[in-house]
Amino acid sequence: MDTEPFQTIYILDIIVNSLPLEFYLGLAGSIILLLSSAMVSGSEVAFFSLSPEQKDILKKDESKKAGLILQMLKNHEKLLATILIANNFINIGIVIITSYILNLAFDFSDFPVLGFLFEVVVITFILLLFGEIIPKVYASEFSLSFAKFTVTPLFLSMKIFSPVSNILIKSTSVVNKRLKMKKKVSVEDLSDALELTENDIKQDKDILERIINFGSIDVKEIMKPRVDTVSADINFSFSKLKSLIIESGYSRIPVYENNFDNIKGILLIKDLLEYIDKEDYKWQEVIKPPFFVPETMKINDLLEEFREKKIHMAIVTDEYGGLSGIVTMEDIIEEIVGEISDETDEEDKLFRKIDAKTYIFDGKIQLNDFYKILDIKEDIFEKIRGEADSLAGLILEKKEDIPKEGDMIKIDEFEFIIEAADNRKIKKIKLKIN
């Protein structure tokens, strides 16, 4: 007869009887705490991995548990803080109790280092396997059912640990604010990132580049100069005003008195539609108050002003208070999406392409538009452009006087030949790219 099983049972019986009651109480407590740790750890994954579809299911579910889950997700910071606090308390309890019962079961008084390593390995293995890995893997697969299973104890934990979690949330918010202040990404960083990914986003690269540079562009760079602005004298008769409106095709026209420096308001053409058949009408009564902005204002700030004030046109002033021109909502939008043309716009109004290396430009074309047409960097003429905003202004900065027809000005690989000019300004410029 084989007596080995009976010997094994006898030895186990001796071991069991030799262990004190505290060992079994501690073992039961460790198991309960380990299950609690698994539940809390799994709830973190379950709550924060709920898909939009699962959230829609919860919204349609009229049960109390579904309502609690949605309520707790709205206060996600407090939910996460509660999970972390509860999990840490439970894990600390497991470490203390498990260490205690191991010391009751094994005598490591002669080998303290070995005993310490044994406790660390055993406790870490148990906590990771049963308290973290298994419950989180399960919760990720069955997030909705696991969230419903743990919502009630977790809600009670939120109430119990509320004072501690509030302190934790406030302290972390202070740290987050300071980190956000330090984490400022420059325009150069964004530009470099865009260059690294340009092969993957070729179609959207131009728009992304414009968005990145949007906040660095002054109103002066995109405005329509006063010499090119269509405006109406406040003393115009209604018939003369109608002729101006039909000829220009604009939907908004600045109104001045005596000269352009004395702007009285903005006329919205739509306000005249019901009176268009009349021979005479006191149109001055419907003009809107003008909105003035400085040349140095950034166009992203101007866009926000337009949005808040619900207007589409501003009068641009220089540093001396004189009027430089006008800027419209369309001018700003074009800085992002590119040139916007409609059936009333003249094609190639400011330039004409002769071949891949030769262009004819109007002298008043803005440098900003010039760069876009040639697809060149905006800082290419930075050393010589000075205060110039137009191509004619750039030529004047380089030559330092008004050139004559036929004069050639060379800047790096660009040859500018004056096609038309008078004593006051440069009208047409021919560009050859070598």
Question: Can you describe what's shown?
Answer:
The protein has 17 helices and twelve strands. It folds into four domains: about 15-180, no CATH class; about 185-215, no CATH class; about 215-335, Roll (CBS-domain); about 350-434, Uridine Diphospho-n-acetylenolpyruvylglucosamine Reductase, domain 3 (2-Layer Sandwich). A hairpin with a 1-residue loop joins strand 3 (about 250-255) and strand 4 (about 260-270). The strands form three sheets. The chain has a five-stranded antiparallel sheet with strand order 8-9-12-11-10, with helices on one face. Strands 1-7-6-5 form a four-stranded mixed sheet. The chain has a three-stranded mixed sheet with strand order 2-3-4. It is an alpha+beta fold and about 425 residues long. The chain is elongated, with a radius of gyration of 38 Å.
Class based on secondary structure composition and strand pairing: alpha+beta
Low-pLDDT regions? 9-16
Please list the strands of the largest sheet in the order they lie side by side: 8-9-12-11-10
Helicity level? 40-55%
Number of strands: 12
| Beta-strand content estimate | 5-15%
For the record, give the distance between the C-alpha atoms at the N and C termini, rounded to a whole number.
106 Å
Spatial extent as radius of gyration: 38 Å
Number of helices: 17
